[in-house]
Amino acid sequence: MRDQLLGYLLGALEPAEREEVEARLLIDAELEEDLACLRGKLDNLGLASDGDGDNERCDPPAGLAARTCNYVAARATVSPKYVPAPVGGWRVQDMVVGGGIFLAACMLIFPAIAQRLSSARITNCQNNLRAIGVALQQYSDYYGGFFPLVPEQGPLAVAGMYGPVLNELGLVEGSAVLVCPSSPLAAERETFMVPALAKVIETPAAELPLVQSRMGGSYGYTFGYNENGHYRGHRNRGRVRFALVADSPGEQSGDPSPNHGGAGQNVLFEDMHVGFMKHCRISDCDDHIYINRDGYVGAGIGSDDAVIGRSSDRPVTFQRLPARR
After folding, report:
1. How far, in Å, CA of 8 to CA of 17, rounded?
2. Alpha-carbon separation of residue 216 from 136, 165, 292, 318 (angstroms)
């Protein structure tokens, strides 16, 4: 339908097509915004109409043609080099007009192409998260309704541990599913490999941080939570607003994901639906998906506090100090 907006504004559509576009505009707010944006660009070129082909024409200033001819003649008298000469059968004026049309077409087409590529990458990323969701659902079925728990200590005590765990159990098909097509890791999509659990455990301490930073791929996974002084794992309760996996957060605490150019992040929720969030906080429950209720990256504060960490983030726990008197 967006492909017909230009024809609609220029009055180039058949009556039936024009009526179809107008009917769609009444119910599609996003399409109406696209139309307004396109009309603004065409207004700069003086091309937009009201949809029925009747463009408003503005008469040129009186005497403009005569003054232009006199100017060209005067310049030719002073120096013949100012007389526009045909180039390959084209006059300079023709080239200027053609260049303007080409520029206008680029302004309309290139953003649309970029938008479609971005939308395709977001969709592919969502498909990855759905596959991860199926794997986590199967894991919870096997392990009494619980999801994988990030350990508090050891080589696997990072959010990225979910990758090797699911891969080792054969619940994900290949390592590429852990790579977002809009992430920095996308260039390695064909060669990226999730390390085996044994390899992670045996990795020398000096090399371990690099391995930990990559084993979760482009995505972050949720930590467990603290309750009454105990660190616990999350049970699969099918919550609609509880984040399980998402595009990996930024380097600073609470930063949005860089995976989609900072425009937002895809999130897999516990009921296994995937949504694209422009912000990091779930509005109806005020839960920030990348930091806990105390404002840091680590274990959640209570069972409903979802905290998604980067592959190398640890479920660090803090104790509140008593207030000084």
Report:
1. 8
2. 14, 10, 20, 24
